[in-house]
Design brief:
Blueprint lengths: L6 E4 L3 H12 L4 E5 L14 E2 L8 H21 L5 E2 L3 E3 L4 H16 L5 E4 H7 L11 E5 L3 E3 L1 H14 L3 E4 L3 E6 L5 E6 L4 E3 L2 E4 L5 H6 L11 E8 L8 E4 L2 E5 L4 E5 L1 H4 L8 H15 L7 E9 L9 E4 L6 E5 L3 H18 L17
Parallel strand pairs: 1-2, 1-13, 2-9, 5-15, 13-20
Antiparallel strand pairs: 3-8, 4-8, 5-7, 6-7, 10-11, 11-12, 14-17, 14-18, 15-16, 16-17, 19-20
């Protein structure tokens, strides 16, 4: 592999941390740059569900997500799984016939793609997996045993900590003000809001919701969707559930030993109506109580509305932009699931110049004018 002299990774969420860690461990000189603190942006306010069962719209995207799941299992073996890796599976069920038919059809498709799925009744789930749930005894429930959830902030801390211990540099609490290029448009410098300037050979744009702005600094147009989401953390004296789940109208997962994370696309739809985040949190809490009655006595601890980093067509933008030598993108809504595999593939591309076919459908060139 050829060695980049200096790589600036802009944005230290789950994607930036994975790319930088992989670059650092293969000898590159890495500078992590984040306007806030590593792992505390969108990565900390994600449902953080590692899966491919929700990625069936395109087979190549499904395959990339399956590879992402495998890459996490490998990463857990490399850096240790404690505090961030929870491979406890995922449950999904519905409460109306049309939705029920849809999830069962998806399960059949996934089984045909050799993706593991098991079907239980509600009574079996309560008896074998999640006794705290309330659901009809005969409702079909899908269990995806290979799926997981990730504590994103803890993972980012582990990766960045290891990279820094190996010689990487961390510049947190300072934003990128400008990116300087040479006569051939190749990357030369990164100017920061603290007044400093870095000489670099490579820039990795992993800036999440700010990725379009960073792209604009090199005269690159990266179209992004605006899809805000609201996530609430509920404090629990005793954790009532053991795995991530999509229940009717609400998504619920553990978040360590004393809290639960809640999200709902239905509640997201209310963000632009002017509802205050506190009210959105109460609606999420109320929905969760119908599924897990033990959450009725819990308290709302934190709520955040964040913009999801979604390229315009809904798929990741990963790899080099040939018109700007030394500029790479790592931008994806599915950052949690794809973090480990994108980190490995993009670092390899940067260091070797070889493009992996797994990223063929997700190259940044598709957005070029």
């Amino acid at each position: 592999m050829k060695r980049a002299e200096r790589v600036a990774v802009i944005g230290v969420g789950v994607l930036g941390a994975n790319v930088g860690w992989n670059l650092s461990r293969h000898g590159a000189e890495v500078v992590f740059i984040d306007a806030g603190r590593p792992g505390e942006g969108v990565t900390n306010w994600s449902f953080s569900w590692v899966n491919a069962s929700n990625k069936t719209v395109r087979k190549s995207y499904f395959d990339l997500n399956v590879a992402g799941m495998a890459a996490y299992r490998e990463l857990a073996g490399t850096i240790g799984p404690d505090s961030w890796w929870y491979p406890s599976g995922h449950l999904r069920w519905a409460d109306d016939p049309a939705a029920q038919t849809k999830i069962l059809e998806t399960a059949e498709l996934l089984a045909g793609w050799d993706y593991r799925v098991e079907e239980y009744t509600g009574a079996e789930v309560r008896r074998r997996l999640e006794p705290a749930l309330t659901m009809p005894g005969e409702v079909p429930v899908l269990f995806y045993p290979d799926e997981a959830w990730v504590h994103g902030r803890h993972l980012v801390g582990r990766l960045v900590g290891q990279a820094v211990a190996s010689g990487a540099e961390l510049r947190s609490g300072t934003a990128v003000r400008d990116i300087g290029t040479g006569a051939d448009r190749s990357i030369r410098t990164v100017a920061l809001s603290d007044g400093s300037s870095l000489d670099v050979d490579i820039v990795v744009n992993a800036a999440g919701p700010s990725a379009s702005h960073i792209a604009g600094l090199v005269a690159r147009h990266l179209p992004m969707r605006r899809e805000p989401g609201v996530v609430t953390r509920i404090g629990c004296a005793q954790l009532p559930i053991h795995r991530a789940m999509h229940a009717p109208h609400i998504e619920i997962r553990p978040d360590g030993e004393d809290s639960v994370v809640l999200h709902s696309r239905e509640i997201d739809a209310l963000i632009d109506t002017g509802e205050e985040p506190a009210q959105l949190a109460r609606l999420l809490h109320e929905s969760a109580r119908h599924v897990v009655p033990a959450l009725g006595t819990s308290r709302i601890a934190q709520t955040r509305v964040v913009d999801r980093p979604i390229p315009a067509d809904g798929f990741p933008s990963v790899g080099a932009v040939p018109s700007v030598p030394g500029y790479y993108e790592a931008v994806s809504h599915s950052g949690i699931t794809l973090g480990a595999v994108i980190g490995r593939l993009l670092a390899s591309e940067i260091l070797s110049g070889k493009r992996d076919e797994m990223l063929a459908d997700f190259r940044p060139e598709r957005f070029l004018p």
